Amino acid sequence: MNNKELLLELSKRLGKSQKEISSMLEHTSGAIVSSLKSGNIVSIQGFGNFEPRAKQKREIVNPATKEVIKVPAKVSINFKTGTILKDKIKNITHRGK
Q1: Angle 38-44-47 (CA atoms, 0-180°, nearest 5)?
Q2: Could you give the CA distance from residue 12 to residue 82 in angstroms, rounded to a whole number?
Q3: How many CB atoms lie within 10 A of CB 18?
Q4: What is the percent of the chain with per-residue pLDDT over 90, rounded to a whole number?
Q5: 30 φ, ψ (degrees, to nearest 5)
Q6: Which candidate, 41, 48, 51, 44, places its Cα nearest to that of 76?
Q7: Most buried among 17, 41, 52, 60, using CB within 10 Å?
Q8: Could you give the CA distance from residue 23 to residue 16 in angstroms, rounded to a whole number?
Q9: Would the pLDDT of 97 be above 70?
Q10: Residue 43 vs residues 58, 61, 81: alpha-carbon distances, Å
């Protein structure tokens, strides 16, 4: 499902215009991003948790050239699925593209 399909589906379910839904999604994602940037865990009951995790700087080696490459420190976002969501999708078989 892409953004356009999500907007259409939510518009149908909520009886709101796609423009209104788009604004709601922008505000929701903005609030989530703002909280994550502050280092907070975002927990959406029944859906899951988004958690910022610090990755230390490190050196890796390119196996083909043996060149040492320095990878800078960064923050990545980890998502852990909530129990309710897990239960709802546990019987779905993988659909490859």
Answers
A1: 135
A2: 26
A3: 14
A4: 84
A5: -65, -40
A6: 51
A7: 52
A8: 11
A9: no
A10: 30, 37, 10
